[in-house]
Amino acid sequence: METTTQPVTVQATINAPVAEVWNKWNAPEHITQWCFASDDWHAPFSENDLRVGGSIKTTMAAKDGSFSFDFGGTYTEVEENRYLAYTLGDGRKVTVSFEQEGDGTKVVETFDPENTHPVEFQQAGWQAILDNFKKYAESK
Predict the structure, then answer these.
(1) How confident is the model at residue 140, as a pLDDT?
(2) 83 near 98, Cβ under 8 Å?
(3) Do 79 and 99 contact (CB within 8 A), yes or no?
(4) Which of 18, 49, 87, 137 is the most exposed place for a label (fewest CB within 10 A)?
(5) Alpha carbon distance 45, 59 (integer Å)
């Protein structure tokens, strides 16, 4: 298994304006609709206190009830419609930028990988969640 201390980046361009993408990324009623990597998972709970020092928490769960976990952190930077940074409970850092690109919004998410799973596995999982966000944000 490869371990690294290098941050990992995933990205997608969403065919929607920045303000709409920002809202669907951050509002709990939207987060529960997209924050999972595959159709056999869901996000039954989310709360988001979108301010420096505020926290985000989302429960990700297998639909068959076999496994669930809480994903969350504390915000260190919030620039509305532009940028988020937060620290996960284990100290890893995450940043998300939102950039106008033509008629769409480029979302770039960078995270510190953990040391339990291969980096490629983590990158694929985070990309799958971002791709699910794109699908949701463009369909509503």
Answers:
(1) 67
(2) yes
(3) no
(4) 49
(5) 5
Contact (Cβ atoms closer than 8 angstroms) between residue 29 and residue 44 = no
DSSP structural state of residue 57: E
pLDDT for 10: 98
Find where tokens 């709360």 sit.
47
The segments of the chain whose pLDDT lies below 50 read 1-3
Residue type, 67: F
Q: Return d(Cα 1, Cα 12) in angstroms, integer.
A: 27
DSSP lists the bridge partners of residue 57 as 47, 72
Closest by alpha carbon to 51, among 30, 79, 24? 79
Spell out the SS3 assignment of 76-100: EEEECCCEEEEEECCCCEEEEEEEE
Can you tell me which residue has the tokens 């949701």?
A: 136
Give the CATH H-level superfamily of domain 8-139: START domain (3.30.530.20)
pLDDT at 5: 73
Residues 76, 52: contact at Cβ < 8 Å?
yes
DSSP 2-28: ----S-EEEEEEESS-HHHHHHHHH-H
Amino acid at 105: T
